[in-house]
Amino acid sequence: MKKIFWLIVLYIIFIGNYSFGVQIVYPKSKNVTINSDKTFFAGNESPNRTLKINSKKVNLHPSGGFRKAVNLNYGLNTFTIDNGKEKVIYKITRPKQVNKTDITPSAIIYKNSIFISIIKDNTPLRSTPIDKGFNRLQHFNKGIEFEAIGEERGFYKVKLSRDDFGFISKDCASEINKKNLANANIKALEHKTEHNNKYIKISLDKQVPYALSESEHGLDIVVYNTDNQFQKYEDFIEGKPFGYTSYYNDNNELIISMKKFPITDKKNPLKNIRITIDPGHGGNELGATGCLGTQEKDLNLEIAKILKNKLTKLGAIVNMTRENDTFVELNERVELTNNFNSDIFISIHNNSIPDSAADKDVTGTELYYFYPQSRELAKILAESISQRTGFKNGKARGQSFAVIRNTHCIAILAEIGYLINPEDNYKLINKDFQNKITDGIIDGLEKYLRQ
Ligand SMILES: [Zn+2]
């Protein structure tokens, strides 16, 4: 028996250590094209080896993880990864720069306005003719009509009132055969408070564009193309928003509903708060790969499950967008959150970096929000997670991610750590550390809800 034991020990020492070579998780293959002036190698190797990339020593974390930035020249770049026992060759091609002629057409103003109708549900009305970022004013369903006075970069420039304009992608609307658009008449108006919700119901004789925005006194509402003097009707719901939604019903009634900040039990602030936890990625969608080979989708789920248990024990009513390693579409995640009537949505992720950031020293926790109403929770969570874990506080940032944009509640997305960073990866897979992360999230939620 003793002999067998020692044979196993010898097997682990020699075969385990020496027969398996370096594991490289990024770049994803030995022959790739990368359109950047830099990239990086990330992976792991036995920490007692000396690892070199093109004869330059690579620092190995005690866990064996590493990430090393390299510069890329135009054309073919060859990298030899040498661990003293074997050499692996990586061929990375950086394509030559093509002289791009600026094909962006300048803005056109039509001689006579044309009239268009939305043909896709959830079409964004934007403040600038750019298809990204924070320029969304509102979303509209099929059938809402606009007067277009011109076009720019593939967007119609639409008139909202005498002095207000917006942009709608030409793919989302089609021209209709009309000579003008009649303004809408407001037939009735109703302000109502029910349970924890405040409503405004505006009854119109047709559906016209509108926009919502958050301000110090609450939720501001502008309805365009109505019959008053300035052709826009303005109103607001007073109070600090805790999620809101708006829609037209079949009777041309515009319903705007805002949830009030809940009155919580100071000792037990999470009690009866409805929380949806969204473990990012799943199934075929792996997310980031850590230098130690950790898959983001698995890590996100592990953290989410611990968080669910703790929140449930504290009296929260918890919903998960996935409980297994399955693929869930982004819209489905949004629907699951909205149908649950969630108060708070927390999407759990872990980070990687693009090639262009290869030389940056990335580590720590970042929190993302879309609506101003969610900024405060994002800030508090960045701080509370960082306090418990010792991770760098990467602060709260605005970002237009679908899951935090289309959910009608306080919604944040947490990038807990950088899986691509050896130290972060090493910590993130540790169970005690995962407990610190989830305790940090709970500290932050309690602090936020106690106010
Ligand atoms: Zn992710």
3D architecture notes:
This protein is α+β, with helices and mostly antiparallel strands. It contains seven helices and 28 strands. The N and C termini lie far apart (64 Å). Residues 12-19 have low confidence and may be disordered. Zinc ion binds at residues 280-281, 287-288, 296, 349.
User: Per CATH, which architecture of the largest domain?
Assistant: 3-Layer(aba) Sandwich
For CATH, the homologous superfamily of the largest domain is named as Zn-dependent exopeptidases
| Tally of helical segments | 7
Low-confidence stretches: 12-19
CATH class of the largest domain: Alpha Beta
Average of per-residue pLDDT values: 92
Overall number of domains: 4
Distance between the termini: 64 Å
The shape, in one word, is flat
Q: Record the strand order, biggest sheet.
A: 24-23-25-28-26-27
Judged by helices, strands and strand pairing, the structural class is alpha+beta
Bound small molecules, by name, code or SMILES, are:
zinc ion
Largest sheet: 6 strands, mixed
Rg computed from alpha carbons, rounded to a whole number of angstroms: 27 Å
How many strands appear in the DSSP assignment?
A: 28
- Amount of helix: 10-25%
CATH topology of the largest domain: Aminopeptidase
Tell me the strand percentage band: 35-45%
